[in-house]
Amino acid sequence: MITKVLMPKLSDAMETGKVIQWMKKEGDKVKGGDILAEIETDKANVEIEAFGSGVLRKIIVTPGEQVPVGELIGIIADPEEDISGAAVSAPKSTGSPAATPVTAPAPPPASAIPAMETYQSVAATSRVVPAASVAASPAMAATAGARVKASPLARKVAGQTGVDLRLIQGTGPGGRIVRRDVEAAVVAPAPLPPTTPRPTAPAPAASARPAFVIPPRRETEYEDQPLSPIRAVIAKRMPLSKAPVPHFYVTVEVAMDRAWALREELNALEGQPKLSVNDLVIKASALALRKNPGVNASLQGQGIRIHHRAHIGIAVALEQGLITPVLRDCDVKPLAQIAVESRDLAERARGGKLRVPEMSGATFSISNLGMFDVEEFSAIINPPEGAILAVGSVVEKPVVEGGEMHIGRRARLTLSCDHRVMDGAMGARFLQDVKRLLQEPLRLLA
Fold first, then answer.
1. Which residues are catalytically annotated?
2. Which phi and psi angles does 213 have, rounded to 5°?
3. Pairing of strands 54-59, 29-30
């Protein structure tokens, strides 16, 4: 039986997809459920499964090619089956090199690439080598066969400027090369001859903040950058939210002293997952959504859909833009499980390894900028959801309680609401319940 492998539609906004790598090569046996290929969508890299069994008879779209949703990318069939009628010519890629490339070593076959390699590592094995970097130094020769972890934007900037990524030390997650690393290599002056070393100051403590360094002034007046796939989706979807959706905002200040103390006590226990403030907020929000189902709602045509399960989208900032993977059933999961799953979601989102069910289906979202010392902000609702909670940093400040002043930990939470779905009182009651749960945090352990 012939099974056509089509470019899947992995999100509502997805119109095209790029094949990053094939996990099987032509001639390999395939059974239903096997991981067949890795696809780059507008949100993340996703592994797709085979829906039929047989042999991968033909790969039509090679790694790096981008084709519309629904386009034929491969064929699975029995070994002796005639596939001439099903095979079509390979679609044209939507992108093309900016210049004629210098011949680079051929990439390894897809079967030789481990299934869990990141997109950046795979792309580095078949990258275009600019002419400016052909004259290899001994250091380059030593690393010529190594794979380089770099973001798509970093690779694009490197291709435009002639910077060899193999000579750059990445500062992104896991040593990944990001755009700022390439730009720093472009403007960095030539190394000075060695001199007598000066006495160095003691290394700062591990908890100290990194030094504030102002980058060199760029010579060009401006530069134009193409939208990343994620940023393009944001640019397309946000006007559909902010313009037609009537937002209103409700803010409360929460005493976080007891929640902070509970978090420190739990994190001190050996063998327990480390909790973040965001984990506490997720659990408190999920329980408050159960009590206030009108906030866990969305506008659907001429009606309002009330969701009975708390699937919470967790905003994760990537270099290319913002992505919101979904943590499901947060109201019934223990706090420790939320901590483990939320950290895993964020790490895989940054590595482009989210699964399809984790990319959609949120009924409510949380955006936390507290790690950037942002005390208060308002977030834009992610349609079709009816609300999103913006979480600021926990700060120590003078507070007055019972006529006495002392230092307390406080955080400000702002709820953005769709006025078509709920009114101010409904949003305020929800925030009151979130506040109460965070100020009486033992309730979060039930």
1. 419
2. -115, 125
3. antiparallel
pLDDT digits (tens, 9 = 90+) for 330-349: 999 999 999 999 999 999 88
Hey, what CATH topology would domain 113-187 get?
Answer: Dihydrolipoamide Transferase (4.10.320)
Could you read off the pLDDT of 260-289 as tens digits, one per residue? 999 999 999 998 899 999 999 999 999 999
pTM value is 0.60
CA distance 327 to 40: 21
Copy the structure tokens of residue 353: 């390894």
Q: Where in the chain is the domain with CATH 4.10.320.10?
A: 113-187
Return the closest-CA partner of residue 172 out of 314, 318, 46.
Answer: 318
Query: What's the fold here for domain 240-445?
Result: Chloramphenicol Acetyltransferase (3.30.559)
Residues 43-92: pLDDT tens digits?
677 888 888 889 999 999 999 888 998 999 999 999 888 888 776 544 44
When the candidates are 3.40.640.10, 3.60.15.10, 2.40.50.100, 1.10.760.10, the CATH number that belongs to 3-77 is 2.40.50.100
3-state secondary structure 223-276: CCCCCCHHHHHHHHHHHHHHCCCCEEEEEEEEECHHHHHHHHHHHCCCCCCCCC
